[in-house]
Design goal:
- This protein starts with a helix and ends with a helix.
- 65% of the residues lie in helices and 0% in strands.
- By secondary structure, it is an all-alpha fold.
- The protein has a domain at 48-74.
């Protein structure tokens, strides 16, 4: 490959791949905050959480002495 071919190849590569270092047109932070607010809105409690709560309450009602063991696990 001679010098002329190298220069031609370099010119073709520069033309095909423009530089990627450019300034952003807008600030991305407000869009990021809006997206986070949209994703972290109030979520419904799953049914199995209510089932676990009902099981813990009924267990404590059936075995009041076990309340200490339950609190120890928390």
């Amino acid at each position: 490959m001679n010098q002329n071919e190298r220069e031609r190849l370099a010119a073709l590569l520069r033309e095909a791949m423009p530089p990627v270092h450019r300034e952003l047109d807008t600030d991305l932070w407000p869009r990021m905050l809006r997206e986070l607010d949209r994703q972290t809105g109030p979520r419904p409690v799953p049914w199995f959480d209510w089932l676990l709560l009902a099981g813990a309450v009924s267990w404590c009602a059936a075995f009041p002495a076990a309340l200490g063991a339950l609190l120890y696990q928390l």
